[in-house]
Amino acid sequence: MRNSTSIFYNLDWFTIFLYLILVFAGWLNIYAAVYNEEFQSIFDASQQYGKQLLWIGTSIVLGIIILFIDERFYNTFAYVIYSVVIFLLVLVLLIGAETKGATSWFAIGGFKIQPSEFAKFATNIAVAKYLSTLNIKISDLKTKIVAAILIFTPAVLILAQNDTGSALVYGSFILVLYREGLSGNFLVIGVATAFLFVMALIMRNEIFIFPFDIQLDGTILLIILVGLVCALLWYLNRKSKQLLVIMIAVFIASAGLIKSVDYIFNSVLEPHQSKRINVMLGLESDPKGAGYNVNQSLIAIGSGGISGKGFLEGTQTKYDFVPEQSTDFIFCTIGEEWGFLGSLVIIILFITLLLRIMYLTTRQRSDFARIYGYGVACILFFHFTINIGMTIGLAPVIGIPLPFFSYGGSSLWGFSILLFVFLKLDSDRMKVL
């Protein structure tokens, strides 16, 4: 028999409190980033902070509506929601508005809606639905293939929209699969692949000179080093024929990856993306071009010192030295006006939210809610880590928003839906399904 207790009785108010603090702090920093003395009203819809207030209000209303919907709805209609969003991702490619080179938005009057921001929620709920289905085991090859199709279908469609940053977010789902029993070997392969890719980028144009005037270009040398490592690993357990086959396969795959880096870098990535990666790796200096955003970001954050310059007192912010400061580089405003201490408080709030979601996830009674909760945590973690990382030069500039902070209605709606659906599932965890 189902419990008839009020929907607000078991609601995790601490998480909602964290959400409201982050959203309000985000609005304050958007206000500071675009502040203009000529516009006095905070409700001025011609300004970003005025529009963001509207998005915040509608997000809260949306959250309340989500809490009134029966939790079984999300499980029952998971695939329907996923299919609708996939349709929208296809449709936006056909009739969407192009902004800054990306065809990712539906233009509706003076507002724009970005389907890719809702695709993360739809993918998360579809993956949770599939993995929680009876007799589905992550160890089965079929399960891995179906899960990969669910995850990479929206990623490929978003990549086709020329929105690489949003597409990369879907890589965070590997952590969800790992938590549900995916072999750790896949994580090792992922890290090793990324490491080889970066090393191939760094060494591809280098020439190494050895005794007897032997010269090797960096790519060949890297392949030789990989071969030696594979040979050493086999030698340590040379009685295993299976290991020999594995090492040969690893060597061939690694050599193929190393040799394909130039093609990927020059033909798959956009020129500005390649340039940003070169600048980040120190292979190229372009302080007035690809490296401009990061340099100005570092100046803004560094100028804030320990306690910051004060609200609306940031000169880098006030004079628009940092491009996209209300969206991708919103953390610069925090660093400049609130300093190290203010930045630390925001980081602690985000970490607290992530830890709280993880705690709530571990107490779920249904597999669907648990898997969905891990997805929420992984998506927020990816956005939080990469966004702050790119503002301080530790990650490439791939253009993804800081959750609840960056200006944008689609982003705020998407993250709010993602979080409030989980809060609804958590509040009903004691019900007998």
Number of distinct helices:
17
Order of helices and strands: HHHHEEEHHHHHEEHHHHHHHH
Strand order of the largest sheet: 1-2-3
Class by SSE composition: mainly alpha
Number of domains: 2
Overall 3D shape: globular
Measured distance between first and last alpha carbons: 9 Å
> What is the strand tally?
5
**How would you state the average pLDDT, rounded?**
85
Strand content: under 5%
Q: What is the subunit arrangement here?
A: single chain
Descriptive key words:
single chain, 433 residues, mainly alpha, three-stranded antiparallel beta sheet, two-stranded antiparallel sheet, globular
Describe this structure as you would to a colleague.
The protein is mainly α. The chain has 2 domains: 13-194 and 283-427, no CATH class; 206-278, no CATH class. Helix content is 65%, strand content 5%. The protein contains 17 helices and 5 strands. It has helices at 13-33, 48-68, 72-76, 78-95, 116-131, 141-160, 164-168, 173-179, 184-203, 218-236, 241-268, 271-280, 292-303, 315-318, 330-362, 367-391, 409-427, and strands spanning 97-99, 102-108, 111-113, 207-210, 214-217. The strands form 2 sheets. Strands 1-2-3 form a 3-stranded antiparallel beta sheet, with helices on one face. The longest helix has 33 residues, at 330-362.
Tell me briefly what this model is.
Helices cover 65% and strands 5% of the residues. It has 17 helices and five strands.
